Each structure stands twice: as structure tokens, then as C-alpha cells.
Amino acid sequence: MGAWVVLVLSGVLEAVWASALAASDGFRRPVPVAVFAVTAALSLFGLAHAMTSLPTGTAYAVWVGIGGALTVAWSMLTGREAATVLKILLVLGIIGCVIGLRLVA
């Protein structure tokens, strides 16, 4: 699998582990803790793999951007976080930056 595909999947897993961490209630709920542990490990493994053929800064920025944008989007969709026009535009800006990094890398 190509480094960019692995990187995108790892970014998606970052959003999963961040959401599971929030749902763990301070590591007091075992199922979200288990989801957090597995997806965090897989996400970091994928990032490390992608960094073997992509520049470190670019790979990390894309990973964080995907994870952050998806985490905010999920929080807004589930009602845990208010969805405002400005917040949506800013998240779209993050996505645009991620796409831009892919195009110039």
C-alpha cells in the first residue's frame, strides 16, 4: 500500500483514538480505553511507516490535519461540540491545506 494511503488511514485512526479517549472518561471505561489503545498504536505505526518515504514534516502535518479535522467534524456531528459557520470554514481550511501539501510533496 502506498505511503500516502497509509498516511490517510493513519490520520483517520487518529480521529478514532481521540474520540475514544474522550469517551473513556479519564480511562475509567474499558471499551473506549481498549479502542483508544489499539487505534493509537495502529495510527502511530502507520505514521512511522509513511515517514520512511515521505518527508517527516509533511507526513506529520497531514496526519495531524486529517485527524484534527475529522475529530472536530465528528464532535460537531454528534452534538458534543457546537457547529458554527466559522468553525466549519476553518476545518475546511485545514482540509485544503492537507490537500495542498499532498499536491506539492
Automatic annotation (TrEMBL):
A cellular component term, taken from the record's GO annotations: plasma membrane
Protein name: QacE family quaternary ammonium compound efflux SMR transporter
Keywords tagged on the record: Cell membrane, Membrane, Transmembrane, Transmembrane helix, Transport
Segment forming the signal sequence: none
Subcellular location field: Cell membrane
UniProt similarity note: Belongs to the drug/metabolite transporter (DMT) superfamily. Small multidrug resistance (SMR) (TC 2.A.7.1) family.
GO MF term list: transmembrane transporter activity
Pfam family, one: Multi_Drug_Res
Transmembrane segments: 32-51, 58-77, 83-104
Topological relation to the membrane, as annotated: Multi-pass membrane protein
Chief place of localization: membrane
Origin superkingdom: Bacteria
